[in-house]
């Protein structure tokens, strides 16, 4: 059953048209790998999928409901791992996890933290303060957070950065186990992660020149009464803004 979809998505960041006319769909147990050159918009798309930002055009739906209609419900069903590990330097690994578990309303906090620490093989770091962790240990701590509580969707932005080979293999196992329980995983990576049969979404295919998009908008706006152009078209010409 198709659960998570996006259609006709256009993403603008600053004055940059990152991608346009992008669509995706994912069903229970699916993995989607985002691919594309640096700056193609993988992180931007993951942020849209998490409901942290809004598309300039198009919509993203969870079981037919636009995620923009209830962002709190959407946040509750997903775990998002961004570029930043978001580890509090003065708190121990365990207390960092406790903070996240409390925010997520986990009931068996200590039990779930123990499980997550074991899954990422960082139990021995439980009492180490965040500021003393190596970058790989920070990434493993951040990854252990996504195991806390229940979720239906993992959005992972370059989850392998800083991880050694064993941790990458462990992450691949965690992804497989999450999918086996019906979870959907969408991730970006520049290195091979051993994920079984992911759908590939290549963002390079959705890059469109800014001027082409503005002309397209102009046609669409001819029937509009209001002026909701994001940019003045002459300004676009002056700056020659293209992808
Ligand atoms: N906060 C921001 N404000 C304005 N533009 C931004 C911002 N963050 C990113 N961008 C721009 O958006 C575009 C897409 O960036 P994004 O980080 O989504 O790409 P990416 O595919 O994840 O890149 P990478 O592979 O390098 O991580 C880039 O051109 C970037 O310069």
From TrEMBL:
SMART domains, per the entry: AAA
Domain ABC transporter: 4-236
Entry keyword set: ATP-binding, Cytochrome c-type biogenesis, Membrane, Nucleotide-binding, Translocase, Transport
PANTHER family membership: ABC TRANSPORTER I FAMILY MEMBER 1 (PTHR43499)
GO molecular function terms noted in the UniProt entry: ATP binding; ATP hydrolysis activity; transmembrane transporter activity
Gene Ontology terms: biological process: cytochrome complex assembly
Pfam families (alphabetical): ABC_tran
The organism of origin for this protein: Thalassospira alkalitolerans
Residue stretches of biased makeup (Basic and acidic residues): 226-235
Protein name as catalogued: Cytochrome C biogenesis protein CcmA
Residue ranges, annotated region (Disordered): 219-243
């Amino acid at each position: 059953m198709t659960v998570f979809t996006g259609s006709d998505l256009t993403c603008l960041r600053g004055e940059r048209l990152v991608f346009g006319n992008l669509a995706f769909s994912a069903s229970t147990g699916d993995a989607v790998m985002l691919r594309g050159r640096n700056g193609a918009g993988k992180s931007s798309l993951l942020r849209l999928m998490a409901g942290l930002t809004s598309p300039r055009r198009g919509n993203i739906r969870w079981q037919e409901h636009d995620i923009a209609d209830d962002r709190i419900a959407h946040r509750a069903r997903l775990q998002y791992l961004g570029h930043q590990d978001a580890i509090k330097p003065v708190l121990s690994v365990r207390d960092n996890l406790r903070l996240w578990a409390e925010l997520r309303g986990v009931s068996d906090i200590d039990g779930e933290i123990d499980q997550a620490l074991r899954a990422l093989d960082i139990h021995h770091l439980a009492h180490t303060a965040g500021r003393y962790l190596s970058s790989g240990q920070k990434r493993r701590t951040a990854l252990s957070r996504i195991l806390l509580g229940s979720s239906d969707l993992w959005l992972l932005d370059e989850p392998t950065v800083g991880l050694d080979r064993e941790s990458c293999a462990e992450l691949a196992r965690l992804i497989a186990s999450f999918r086996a329980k019906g979870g959907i995983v969408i991730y970006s990576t520049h290195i091979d992660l051993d994920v079984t049969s992911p759908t590939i979404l290549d963002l390079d295919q959705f890059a469109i020149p800014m001027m082409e998009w503005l002309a397209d908008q102009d046609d669409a706006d001819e029937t509009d009464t209001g002026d909701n152009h994001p940019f003045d078209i002459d300004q676009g010409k002056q700056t020659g803004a293209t992808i």
